[in-house]
Amino acid sequence: MTNLPNIGKPATNALRQLDITTLEQIAIHDEKTLLKIHGIGPKAIGILKEAMAGQGMHFKEVMKESATHGVDFAVFCDFNCDNAPKKRIIRDYLVASASGERAALENVLEESFVWNVPGEFQIKGREAFIKELQANLQEISSLEIQSLLTHGKEGSAHGTVINKKGKHVYFSDIFTFKSNKKDAKISELTSFVVIEE
């Protein structure tokens, strides 16, 4: 493994928050995504690119079709969900909920959608959920989706959101779809959230 070159304290700290400490880990990401991380700028990218070239590595190529189009934060996850439509729906939901993108949320959520946060609250109705989400949006630096699983009418995902102040929010979501059909919308979500103090 090849350690990161000296890219400056802000960029190094931003990458460490994502547990990225080697050039090999950098090489699995695309340049455009890394530039969305708070603390990483063109200078750091140039230094990384030069160091990677010296090791025979390069940034991953940007995918043409992406759920992250138009979002201003980095998204780390497996984008190869074309053979698993419900995984794609969950991924699109997670990106849309982090960005507050109304049209994308309406596209994946049933009108009668219910959001449960055990021990905290329950919100009934897609419109009420979107209003609550948009009223509490954070400035996000990155969203990392560590796993996406689906089977029949159910699915789950967990990951980490890092806001622009460096605070981590860890989430685990359990999804229920309206039916077993591959294009079914999400009818219910139960979320468990841990906010770093």
Give helix % range: 25-40%
Rg, nearest Å = 18 Å
Tally of DSSP β-strands = 7
Low-confidence stretches: none
Query: What spatial order of strands do you see in the largest sheet?
Result: 1-4-5-6-7-2-3
Shape: elongated
Strand content: 25-35%
The SSE string, one letter per element, is HHHHEHHEEHEEEE
Number of domains: 2
Structural class: alpha/beta
CATH architecture of the largest domain: Roll
The number of distinct helices, counting runs of at least 4 residues, comes to: 7
Q: CATH topology of the largest domain, what is it called? A: Nuclear Transport Factor 2, Chain: A
Mean pLDDT: 89
Taking the alpha carbons of the first and last residues, their distance comes to 32 Å
Summary keywords:
197 residues; alpha/beta; Nuclear Transport Factor 2, Chain: A; seven-stranded mixed β-sheet; 7 helices; 7 strands; elongated
